[in-house]
Design a protein that fits this description.
99 residues; 2 helices; 3-stranded antiparallel β-sheet; single chain; alpha+beta; 4-stranded antiparallel β-sheet
Length: 99
């Protein structure tokens, strides 16, 4: 399955059958996503994903999709309520059971 490009909170996300690519729109977004020394897009091979957690957004708080890799890297993708449908679809595609 492939999802179209998604706009998150200060990030752009591309997902296909092999990879998830996350682009931080600002330096602050890149640091929040992957740390001080990370200047490029984060590329996560789907085969390297160990766990995924999803917390939906509400009118006051942004939602999060947290991807943890087998190597222990944790990536927090933040999104606003109006962007929630795309991130919910990605979470479902990655195996999160939503209630």
């Amino acid at each position: 399955p492939t999802l179209p490009g998604m706009d998150g909170y200060m990030i752009d996300v591309q997902a296909d059958a092999e990879l998830i690519r996350v682009h931080g729109k600002t330096k602050a977004a890149r640091i929040a996503l992957a740390g001080q020394d990370h200047e490029t897009d984060v590329v996560i091979p789907r085969a390297d994903i160990e766990t995924v957690t999803y917390k939906g957004a509400n009118p006051v708080v942004n939602g999060t999709l947290i991807i943890t890799t087998i190597a222990g890297h944790k990536y927090q993708l933040h999104f606003r309520r109006k962007q929630q449908a795309d991130f919910r679809a990605l979470a479902t595609e990655l195996g999160v059971v939503l209630t």
